[in-house]
């Protein structure tokens, strides 16, 4: 079954930028586009919000207008719309199970602060069962041209980052772009080395050659599967978030992984994804690990 690209729309400029990005991605990949508004009836003291049916009609009309804008730009694109009733974050997270990816908007902010990742976006990213792409309001099609890479963070062995690499290579192939695979490394405390790990490092010629070999091994099956995608291997000492952000300026899309982490206050997205989502100037895809 072909899973559509789902765009969450609420009428804001951020969500409309996300919808435009999702439509271009759907055209590139030859996938249908599903435009969703997650809604529940709310009353407002300051304005006449109407009754539930009136609000629902406003939502449907706004969704239909957004879909018409997309089909006017992309006449051959298959577009469907759906109003999902419920708390937006929970509803969109649930909808992600049937989507190839879910695309949401996020607000840009000052250069130092970066993105304002709202509670809805953060919860969807943390709980989604398929990739979630966050797009800022100022995103433009021109940012996808000019030789910019699809940047992907790789860690661990090939299995640890397989889904993240898959998403990055598929995105690059659809765009005719290169993949810049980034692997960051740091020197752990000496007591963290086991005799076995010390032996591996010694055989590799030191920590950095070991990391380069690990990255090359993780990329090998994806190079074979996507022979037309040019790959740049980037190994650098530093924290993963810092190294990824150092190359974000040359990216048209950044792809990072997300492992399930639960705490007393709910799901967490991890420090690397959190940092990149808040500060990268390009759209960011967060891919859950199985």
TrEMBL record:
All residue ranges annotated as the UspA domain in the record: 1-136, 157-288
InterPro entries with a match to the protein in the record: Rossmann-like_a/b/a_fold, Universal_stress_UspA, UspA
Similarity comment text for this entry: Belongs to the universal stress protein A family.
Protein name (Swiss-Prot/TrEMBL): Stress-inducible protein
Organism: Streptomyces zinciresistens K42
Lineage of origin: Bacteria, Bacillati, Actinomycetota, Actinomycetes, Kitasatosporales
């Amino acid at each position: 079954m072909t899973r559509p690209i789902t765009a969450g729309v609420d009428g804001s400029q951020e969500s409309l930028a996300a919808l435009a990005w999702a439509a271009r991605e759907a055209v590139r990949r030859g996938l249908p586009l599903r435009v969703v508004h997650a809604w529940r009836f709310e009353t407002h003291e300051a304005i006449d919000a109407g009754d539930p049916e009136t609000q629902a009609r406003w939502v449907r009309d706004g969704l239909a207008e957004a879909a018409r804008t997309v089909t006017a730009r992309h006449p051959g694109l298959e577009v469907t719309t759906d109003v999902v009733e419920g708390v937006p974050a929970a509803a969109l997270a649930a909808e992600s199970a049937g989507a190839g990816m879910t695309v949401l908007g996020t607000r840009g902010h000052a250069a130092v602060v970066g993105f304002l990742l709202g509670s809805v976006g953060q919860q969807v990213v943390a709980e989604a069962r398929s990739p979630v792409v966050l797009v800022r309001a100022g995103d433009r099609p021109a940012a996808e041209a000019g030789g910019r890479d699809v940047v992907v963070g790789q860690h661990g062995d090939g299995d640890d980052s397989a889904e993240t690499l898959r998403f990055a290579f598929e995105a690059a192939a659809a765009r005719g772009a290169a993949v810049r695979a980034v692997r960051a490394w740091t020197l752990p405390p000496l007591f963290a080395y086991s005799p076995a790990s010390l032996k591996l490092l010694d055989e590799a010629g030191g920590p950095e050659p070991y990391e380069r070999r690990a990255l090359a091994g993780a990329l090998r099956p994806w190079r074979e599967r996507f022979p037309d995608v040019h790959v740049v291997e980037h190994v650098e000492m530093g924290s993963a978030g810092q190294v990824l952000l150092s190359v974000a300026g040359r990216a048209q899309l950044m792809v990072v992984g997300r492992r399930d982490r639960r705490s007393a206050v709910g799901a967490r997205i991890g420090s690397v994804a959190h940092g990149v989502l808040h500060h990268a100037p390009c759209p960011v895809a967060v891919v859950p690990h199985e």
